[in-house]
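Hey team,

Filing this mostly as a record. A colleague (T.K.) asked me to run one chain through the structure pipeline before their review meeting, and I want the input and output archived in the tracker in case anyone asks later how it was produced. No errors, nothing strange. Just documentation.

Input sequence:
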Amino acid sequence: MPLNLNNLNQTQILNIEDEANQDIYAFAWDNKNINILKYNKFFFLKNQFTDSIKQEKSRNLMGAIITEEKKPTLYWISQNYKNLVVSTYDFEKKTSESLNFVFPESHDYIITSFQQQTTFYILAKEKESDHLLLYKFKDGKCEIKMFDFSNFIFKNERNVAFSFSALIKRFPITKMEQDILNPIDLASKINKLYVLKDRILLTFDYNTIKTQVFDLNTNTGEVEEKNFNQPLSKTASRNSNSFYYDKKLFQLKANKDEFLFDVKDFDSEKTIKTYSFLKNDTIAFKRSPFFMQIDNNRPQQLKTTAKFLKNLDGLSTGISVIKNKKNTFITFSGFGEYFDFYYSSNSFDDFGERIPYSLSKMVYFDALLNENMDAAKDEQTEPLAIDNLFYFLNNNKNISLFDALKLKEYYILSYFDSGSKQFIMRRFTDGFMMENNGNPIMNKAQFSRPASFGSISSY
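Output structure:
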């Protein structure tokens, strides 16, 4: 599909699925036009619509849904995050209409947003209170739920108390994505958020003794607290972390001498499996070498558990979990970032120009557990669809813009190829890749029949 994109920094791409009938919608826009394409599940073009950008100018797209009437609805946030334009597009009439939503005075800042079926949600912090606000947008209306954390106790391992507001300001809540391996820098975050059906889970690991969990009911506004003890270490550990996946809580604690790992059933809070390794041990479930990487330099291999733990010590530990068929694939990691500045001599100032810079360090290895949370047998593991997708991205330098959509059995990658000036949608599934037929994913990429719409201009 030909597109003319002159300024790629002012252009965005998004694709979503209508879960009711598995239609795929692709959106591409800039400051003048938005183009919407509708495909069926076999990637045949069913409909398309081009509309001009009006109130949406100078805004960022937060997300999209497909209404029960099969109308795409986009949510555009203002640059100051104070109001929202909700634009609904009618394929049959080739028209659009917009509503403007202004956040109330009590609204402080946005934490995250997400969609579920025909509903769009925004989770935000309320000013001067220990409350979170959940905005629920559906059918041109907004319902607001309030989650009250004022009666809960927040104390670190030294028994120092602080407020909920202070906690999430110091350690911002970060949304984790399900069914993909979250990046190491995000997996190392202290406070995490998981979106489930009619629920939001918050996991807080500011206390090295326990993981504090809050289960938020998005229908009633009720908040339930749970606490999961971290593994007991023989020597003091600087930090610990956790990850929620598939009704289980995976907990990690490490220091320069020990590597401790627990798997707990979330509902019963009972421990399913406990692992403890010392620095001279071999980690039984390890399926990759230990790696250390500084900034974007080539990763270096660490040969022993002791060297890995020594480099992990002082970093923020992290853990990310994903299912690989019947097995559970885990990345254990640590991440740290250092900010500083230097003075450049290329300046008219007597002291030189102050130039900020940052350095990052990460260490990591991969593990594989079976259904019983034991070390999986030494069998070759097929790459996941997301692995194939990232491999494709890393080896195709002409991809300037892209968006990935997780479906039930595969991923959809929508991207703009700056070489061919084409907008392309490609499908990725699990399995090994073959490159001898010109298709890096075993000919599993499926394209729609050629479709054209007006060029997108950019400023």
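Quick notes for T.K.: Residues 156 and 207 are 5 Å apart (CA to CA). The chain is about 5% helix and 50% strand.
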